[in-house]
Amino acid sequence: MAAVQTRMEAALQRFLPAPEILPERLHRAMRYAVLGGGKRVRPLLAFAASELSAADPARVEVVAAAVEMIHAYSLVHDDMPCMDDDVLRRGRPTCHVEFDEATALLVGDALQPLAFQLMADHVLADKPDEQIEMLKILAVASGSRGMAGGQAIDLASVGKTLSLPELEFMHIHKTGALIRAATVLGARCGRGLEANGYERLERYAKTVGLAFQVVDDVLDCEASTATLGKTAGKDAAQSKPTYVSILGLARARELAEELRVEAHAALSSFDARAARLHELADFIVLRKF
Amino acid sequence: MAAVQTRMEAALQRFLPAPEILPERLHRAMRYAVLGGGKRVRPLLAFAASELSAADPARVEVVAAAVEMIHAYSLVHDDMPCMDDDVLRRGRPTCHVEFDEATALLVGDALQPLAFQLMADHVLADKPDEQIEMLKILAVASGSRGMAGGQAIDLASVGKTLSLPELEFMHIHKTGALIRAATVLGARCGRGLEANGYERLERYAKTVGLAFQVVDDVLDCEASTATLGKTAGKDAAQSKPTYVSILGLARARELAEELRVEAHAALSSFDARAARLHELADFIVLRKF
User: Fold this and answer.
1) Interface test with chain B among A20, A105, A174, by most B beta carbons within 10 Å
2) What is the pTM of this model?
3) pLDDT value at position A194?
4) Is A192 on the interface with B (CB under 8 A)?
């Protein structure tokens, strides 16, 4: 994991415009938003899934960076005053606090096309039409039926009592879509998977994505701001429905454990090439930050 | 022109998610931002340029819609309180006024990947690797070295005295990048242009893009809010440098005319297939709104 994280940090450094290129302030703010932090869960999933198809790491690095740029932009916009209005992220001031609101808006607006540019600028598949399909996967996962749509459902849910299926529907879009895209795109960088392979991989990614969110809610309730690197207890303060508010802390912990077991089960028909994916399911559920 | 505008309205209607699809409010807001107005200058340029290469209009419609989604998102974000803080656009309340700020933010965030999704979802070139090249053109034009970068330069220029070259540099990015992309992508939908064809076409588009901006500044100074459908005199009120503030009204009018002549000259080596491009250069400079 540390090797992937180090590799990703270097790749993101390289793929982001240099801070001395015009417009300098925007480029500095883009680098601030993307570099120097984050668990890089999506890149870890992309690299782990790429082992299923023996993909070239140089390709995986590109799709992982593209997904991470989309993820980073979503955090910048999500932290803005008109959304969650948060001042702390990854232990540092959020982008609009460190720079200003207008710059934060543009950082997100510019990171998004950079993700698609990266995926158009490198050879990622043996056939160009497969690469176009990969670009489409990222676009759909980022859009109104994916991540951005999940944010909209999240917005509409503030102060409301959601049912468990409604909460799940929100997270399957808000964080799940990009987690699934990262996993599938990692595998697609190599030779194709066997019949139903992508289907099973998507089931794994969907389960792991939900587990990630359940654990996030548990940690948000349990941990301190210092440990998390972002404001703790925020969801409760904003009366946002969470797994903990709906299920209670004990049952939420149980659910995370059930999802962990389910994620492992989804991988059962893959051979030893799925070892990293198994490890990540454990990491995502058992993490403390 | 009216035929292209009608065709585009229908295409955009079709390409946007239906308002009854979840998340409904976001989809309604996306449709509000894109439909029902606008001169559709970029689609007009794409269709006009596509005549140079005898491109299939069904392809041109897709790239024109993609560019128009990027343009529409940029207007939504540009109008937000942390940017230009404007309440009127195309004669109607701006998106964040009609809906709310968070929704306006997400409208822009979701329109952008929809543009790339469209371009990945349709066959736009005879060879898939040409289509990937076209996706890259749109990504670069939208990003920090294109439109979003131009916005950042614009932000940094408020209250400053710019030189004419600095103002030109800003507009070549802020509005020019997408106008050039629309034109080049329209031509790329067909069989390739002759040697230097794209270069000459880009020169035309760059000139027309600047002329568009000069005329915008002249109209902003001369016309009423009712005629423009957006707040008139805004640039002066926000102490934004404009062609009129730097050159004066009479010289700005002359410059627009010079650019119109230059745009026609850039087309000189094309044959009758460039007729629509010639017409558009006239329309852009001689328009009254």
Assistant:
1) A105
2) 0.96
3) 84
4) no
Residue type, B255: L
Q: Return the pLDDT at B177.
A: 97
Task: Domain of residue B243: give its range.
Answer: 2-286
The span from the CA of A156 to the CA of A152, in Å, is 6
Is cis: bond before B23, omega within 30 of 0?
Answer: yes
Q: How far is A194 from chain B (nearest CA, A)?
A: 24
Instruction: Using 50 as the pLDDT threshold, list the residues of chain B that sit under it.
Output: none
Q: Is B237 helix (H, G, I), strand (E, B) or coil?
A: helix
Q: What is the pLDDT of residue A228?
A: 67
User: Cα distance from A124 to chain B (closest Cα, Å)?
Assistant: 11
Amino acid at A242: T
A277, A268 Cβ separation under 8 angstroms: no
CB-based contact B148 A27, cutoff 8 Å? no
Chain A closest CA to B255's CA: distance in Å?
A: 27
CATH code: domain of residue B138: 1.10.600.10
- Residue B174 CA to residue B181 CA, distance in Å, equals 12
Buried b (16+ CB within 10 A) or exposed e, A41-52: bbbbbbbbbbbb
- Structure tokens given for B6: 């009608």
pLDDT number for residue B228:
67
Number of structural domains (chain B) is: 1
Q: Which tokens is A138 given?
A: 């990222």
Complex ipTM value? 0.95
Q: Which two tokens stand for residue A232?
A: 């703790």
Q: Which residues from chain B sit within 8 angstroms of residue A142, using beta carbons?
A: 112-113
With CB atoms and an 8 Å threshold, state whether A131 touches B133.
no
Q: How far is B80 from chain A (nearest CA, A)?
A: 9
**B interface mutation test: which of A116, A136, A147, A154 has the most B CBs within 10 A?**
A116
| Residues of chain B contacting A153 with CB distance shorter than 8 Å | 22-23
SS3 B92: strand
Selecting from B103, B114, B133 the residue whose C-beta is nearest the C-beta of A143 gives: B114
Instruction: Kindly determine whether residue B149 and residue A74, on different chains, have CB atoms separated by under 8 Å.
Output: no
CB contacts under 8 A, A 33-92 vs B, are: 73-74, 77, 80, 82-83
Residue spans of alpha helices (H) in chain A: 2-15, 24-34, 41-50, 57-78, 95-98, 101-121, 128-142, 147-157, 164-174, 176-188, 197-222, 225-228, 234-237, 243-247, 249-266, 275-286
Give B238's DSSP letter. Answer: T
Cα–Cα distance for residue pair A78/A215, rounded to 1 Å: 19
Kindly determine whether residue B23 and residue A153, on different chains, have CB atoms separated by under 8 Å.
Answer: yes
Residues of chain A short of pLDDT 70, as ranges, are 225-226, 228
CA–CA min distance A171, chain B (Å): 13
Residue B262 burial by CB count (10 A; 0-12/13-18/19+): exposed, middle or buried?
middle
Tell me the pLDDT tens digit for each residue of B182-204. 999 999 999 889 879 999 999 99
